[in-house]
């Protein structure tokens, strides 16, 4: 009897183990399906799909239709409901049943959902428009880079041109609602936006026309006759696009702003809470804002000490600090090859390298684009990478070298390729964790200085000047959005660091801060957090007596393998990574 009972107990135990394993497998599959759904939520429109995927048909995303932007309280409620349902589904998944990799993704997605829901609580605090990065500024640039892999892509591009006015009308309805509630920009900002619209609407030839013709000529899937037809159709759609900018110009000119604050987010109800959310979301830093300010102020003092000590000892070198010339004339290709060869010792660069071409920014786009940028390649395909640079950068070897470090190797291009060639789920590749990527790019830009045969003290002073400038702007941003500085207080504050700044230049910076809260912090707070993470990682490797010959390489490998994440999530999982890879 005891033997039968023992057999029965063992059988029950094995059944429990088996059911537990099956349950765990079911939970992991359930989680993967949820992540697929969350990824598809991000892929909600043809433009996003066009920039993200090379083969959308593999994801059943090749039949999305272009729809104009619209805004209503119902849409806010629908957005909150959709995210709330995703959050509920996530909470119903048994965390302990997930794999190590899935738990990391769970942590990151849970934060992203919470942040996205959080933004819905502030429908009027932020604007779609702006002088620097507003929708109306960026739209022509985004359309200029629209990829034509099929005729459907071309038709979608046409649809975006023709629905631009409807989109502007929806955005303007929201902007007027913002203004009526006291959330509007200062009148001068709307005047500048109106002037930008006028420049686009009255251009002798809108730059989209020659760019479109060039892409159509290169489209091998089109016959010569069809190319001619599409060029003719394009003219009609461009006319609609110009009409849209004329409409928006008039709206900006006529908008009535009577109760604006000329201050940052802190002047609005719950504005400081929104700023806290923005900083958390953009930088991946979960510190209190006051602690961030104190930390950055301390770092600024350190950088100024380095800078002043060098200038005091070398007063004739001031211009070399501000605008150094570390390299003789070289082509972008030669500089890139130099970086590729040198960085291989410190970064996990693919053995086969990366295929890249360099393009000069179309002169027509000079007023709209950054000095250089890397075009993110599709996450589902290996394609030729593209880095754009303006002539002013490409013709200056020193500027081009550091720019390629930032945009190419070992910066954005390496980080993006490491991510898309990893086994991370697609949803991890599309989350907008900008602090992770921009912190890395700033770090990479500085790091490549070690490969140059230059005076180290001069280079340290150059970096200190760059950092000090950025840190002063970070502090100014916090003063405006968190501590309530209006323009007079802001100008007095910024003059402590830029004593010769003109009122016009001060206003330009002030307006940029008003338009893009979190902008300066997403670059330089993230950069300093990365350095803190690196120091902790190396300390732990040393404490573990890991068999490591190049600590920098190991940190870079960890950072790139981990993939986009808030810094506090990377800190949480760092020790587990070390245990798994170095024990």
Describe the structure concisely:
The chain is an all-alpha fold and 583 residues long.
Describe this structure in words.
With 583 residues, the chain is an all-alpha fold. It is built from 25 helices and 3 strands. It folds into 3 domains: 2-42 and 70-96, no CATH class; 135-260, no CATH class; 285-424 and 438-515, no CATH class. Helices cover 66% and strands 2% of the residues. A 3-stranded mixed beta sheet has the order 1-3-2. Helix 3 (73-91) runs antiparallel to helix 4, helix 6 packs parallel to helix 10 and helix 8 (187-201) packs antiparallel against helix 10. Mean pLDDT is 92; it is low at 1-22.
* Backbone CA Rg: 26 Å
* Terminal-residue CA separation: 48 Å
If strands are numbered along the chain, what order do they take across the biggest sheet? 1-3-2
> Can you tell me the overall shape?
globular
Q: Specify the number of helices.
A: 25
Structural class: mainly alpha
Key phrases:
single chain, 583 residues, mainly alpha, three-stranded mixed β-sheet, disordered N terminus
SSE order and pairing:
Layout: H1 2-42, H2 46-52, H3 73-91, H4 100-119, H5 135-144, H6 151-162, H7 164-180, H8 187-201, H9 208-218, H10 224-254, H11 271-283, H12 289-313, H13 318-322, H14 332-343, E1 356-360, E2 372-375, E3 385-389, H15 391-394, H16 397-407, H17 412-420, H18 426-430, H19 434-447, H20 456-481, H21 487-495, H22 503-515, H23 519-543, H24 551-562, H25 567-582
Parallel strand pairs: 1-3
Antiparallel strand pairs: 2-3
Helix pairs in contact: 3-4, 6-10, 7-10, 8-10, 9-10, 12-20, 14-16, 16-19, 19-23, 20-21, 20-23, 21-22, 23-24, 23-25
């Amino acid at each position: 009897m005891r033997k039968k009972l023992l057999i029965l107990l063992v059988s029950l135990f094995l059944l429990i183990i088996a059911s537990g394993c099956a349950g765990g497998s079911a939970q992991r599959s359930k989680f993967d399906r949820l992540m697929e759904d969350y990824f598809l939520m991000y892929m909600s429109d043809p433009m996003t799909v066009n920039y993200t995927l090379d083969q959308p048909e593999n994801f059943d995303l090749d039949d999305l239709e272009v729809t104009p932007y619209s805004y209503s309280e119902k849409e806010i409620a629908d957005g909150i409901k959709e995210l709330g349902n995703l959050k509920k589904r996530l909470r119903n998944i048994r965390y302990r049943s997930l794999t190590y990799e899935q738990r990391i993704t769970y942590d990151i997605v849970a934060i992203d959902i919470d942040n996205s829901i959080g933004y819905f609580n502030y429908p009027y605090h932020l604007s779609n428009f702006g002088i620097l990065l507003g929708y109306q500024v960026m739209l022509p640039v985004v359309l200029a880079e629209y990829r034509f892999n099929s005729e459907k892509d071309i038709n979608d591009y046409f649809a975006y041109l023709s629905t631009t006015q409807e989109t502007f009308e929806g955005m303007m309805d929201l902007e007027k609602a913002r203004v009526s509630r006291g959330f509007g920009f200062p009148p001068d900002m709307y005047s500048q936006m109106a002037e930008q619209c006028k420049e686009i609407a009255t251009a002798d030839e809108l730059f989209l026309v020659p760019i479109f013709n060039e892409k159509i000529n290169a489209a091998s899937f089109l016959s010569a006759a069809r190319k001619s037809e599409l060029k003719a159709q394009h003219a009609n759609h461009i006319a609609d696009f110009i009409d849209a900018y004329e409409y928006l110009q008039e709206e900006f000119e006529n908008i009535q702003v009577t109760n604006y604050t000329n201050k940052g987010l802190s002047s609005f109800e719950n504005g400081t809470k929104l700023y806290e959310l923005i900083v958390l979301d953009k930088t991946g830093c979960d510190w209190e804002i006051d602690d961030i300010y104190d930390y950055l102020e301390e770092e600024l003092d350190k950088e100024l000490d380095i800078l002043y000590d060098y200038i005091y000892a070398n007063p004739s070198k001031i211009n070399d600090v501000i605008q150094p010339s570390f390299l003789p004339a070289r082509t972008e290709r030669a500089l890139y090859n130099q970086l590729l060869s040198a960085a291989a010792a410190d970064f996990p660069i693919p053995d086969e390298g990366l295929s890249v071409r360099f393009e000069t920014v179309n002169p027509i786009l000079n007023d709209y684009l950054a000095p250089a940028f890397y075009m993110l390649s599709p996450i589902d395909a290996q394609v030729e990478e593209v880095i754009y640079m303006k002539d002013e950068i490409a013709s200056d070897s020193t500027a081009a070298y550091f720019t390629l470090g930032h945009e190419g190797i070992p910066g954005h291009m390496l980080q993006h390729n490491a991510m898309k060639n990893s086994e991370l789920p697609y949803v991890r590749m599309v989350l907008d964790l900008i602090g992770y990527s921009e912190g890395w790019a700033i770090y990479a830009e500085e790091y490549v200085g070690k490969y140059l045969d230059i005076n180290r003290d001069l280079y340290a002073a150059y970096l200190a000047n760059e950092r000090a400038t950025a840190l002063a702007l970070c502090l100014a941003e916090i003063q405006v959005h968190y501590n309530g500085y209006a323009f007079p207080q802001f100008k007095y504050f910024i003059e402590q660091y830029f004593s010769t700044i003109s009122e016009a230049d001060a206003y330009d910076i002030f307006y940029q801060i008003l338009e893009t809260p979190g902008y300066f912090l997403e670059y330089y707070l993230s950069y300093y957090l990365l350095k803190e993470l690196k120091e902790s990682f190396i300390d732990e490797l040393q404490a573990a007596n890991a068999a490591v010959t190049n600590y920098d390489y190991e940190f870079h490998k960890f950072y790139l393998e981990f993939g986009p994440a808030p810094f506090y999530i990377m800190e949480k999982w760092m020790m587990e990574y070390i245990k798994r890879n170095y024990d």
